Amino acid sequence: MPIDPAIAIGADLGSNEFAWETSDVQLYHLALGAGLDDLSYLDDVAPQVLPTFATVAATFHATEAPRVSFPGVEIDLARIVHGSQEIVVHQPIPPSGKATTSTRIAEVWDKGKAAVIVQESTTVDTDGNPLWSARSSIFARGEGGFGGERGPSESVALPDREPDFDVTTKTLPQQALLYRMCGDRNPLHSDPAFAKAAGFPAPILHGLCTYGIVCKTVVGAALDADAARVKGFRAKFAGVVYPGESLRCRIWRDGSQLLVAVTVPERDDAPALADVVVTLA
Ligand SMILES: CCCCCCC[C@@H](O)CC(=O)SCCNC(=O)CCNC(=O)[C@H](O)C(C)(C)COP(=O)(O)OP(=O)(O)OC[C@H]1O[C@@H](n2cnc3c(N)ncnc32)[C@H](O)[C@@H]1OP(=O)(O)O
């Protein structure tokens, strides 16, 4: 059975010790498109670190495609897409360091035509101080119908007024090929034959690449280019993005948070990210 919720829900996926260097942080920022306009992300000594580095730090040096194989879960990689991502940083991420991430399966939802598997993780430094927490889901197409619960159905309403910022960032045709150097070697992003077999006309951009680009765009447009002002960032991957397309971010101030709608202007503003909430430090 590909999914057995009785085994999967609550399963401890163990701990992973890892280290990162300033050059990893620089490469991550380059893979999100940082350049001469964003030199603070590329400094050799003390680059500022986007909080979204939390999503790649533990697996930065991976060179194998990920496997969707956990207690109670065995799914073909071609069937899954990243569904959602949330991070909360408990202190600014240092440009180099050592840490341990512990992960568990928090929830498994049965959407009928698909399954949604939610993981939660906490990351602490070598003294046990919390660095960041994360929650993410994978959306497994064709893997529903195992008799589980459907789970919550929530969405974030956007203000009924013009956005405070409206910024469009162009991605590169080779964006996913650059981004996979940060550890996610899923061939869905690099191999046209694999992408076609998975039901896409061409390789798609990593969800976490879009997520990082959007965070960088929001920091640049609305937060005086100060990445330390982001405390939390959550988003749902609402539609695929193809490398080379643009990401339009409409940003609304909303008290102690920012709300963002992310669309692809080349395809009539098709949604890319939805339910985007940036919590301010
Ligand atoms: C260990 C290995 C880990 C690997 C991690 C990931 C590795 C990466 O390399 C993979 C990637 O980066 S893939 C790229 C990023 N992701 C995407 O591009 C997905 C974009 N989204 C889509 O295509 C559709 O929204 C789609 C397909 C997600 C959903 O569209 P539809 O099928 O039309 O669904 P819909 O009818 O709208 O909704 C059905 C129910 O599902 C819920 N739902 C929808 N989108 C969701 C999403 N993104 N995440 C979680 N749940 C989602 C809906 O709420 C609905 O449930 P309900 O009726 O109960 O509300």
TrEMBL record:
The name on file for this protein is 3-alpha,7-alpha, 12-alpha-trihydroxy-5-beta-cholest-24-enoyl-CoA hydratase
Q: Which CDD domains match?
A: HDE_HSD (cd03448)
What is the species of this protein?
Antrihabitans stalactiti
Record's SUPFAM superfamilies?
Thioesterase/thiol ester dehydrase-isomerase
Q: Which PANTHER family match?
A: ENOYL-COA HYDRATASE CHSH3 (PTHR13078:SF59), PEROXISOMAL MULTIFUNCTIONAL ENZYME TYPE 2-RELATED (PTHR13078)
Ranges for the region named Disordered are: 143-165
- Residues in domain Peroxisomal multifunctional enzyme type 2-like N-terminal? 18-142
Regions crossing the membrane = none
Classification via Gene3D superfamilies:
Hotdog Thioesterase
User: Which family does the similarity line name?
Assistant: Belongs to the enoyl-CoA hydratase/isomerase family.
The taxonomic lineage of its organism, from the top, reads: Bacteria, Bacillati, Actinomycetota, Actinomycetes, Mycobacteriales
Name all MaoC-like domain ranges.
Answer: 157-258
Sorted alphabetically, the Gene Ontology BP terms of this entry are: fatty acid beta-oxidation
- Name the domain of life: Bacteria
Query: What one GO molecular function would you report for this record?
Result: 17-beta-hydroxysteroid dehydrogenase (NAD+) activity
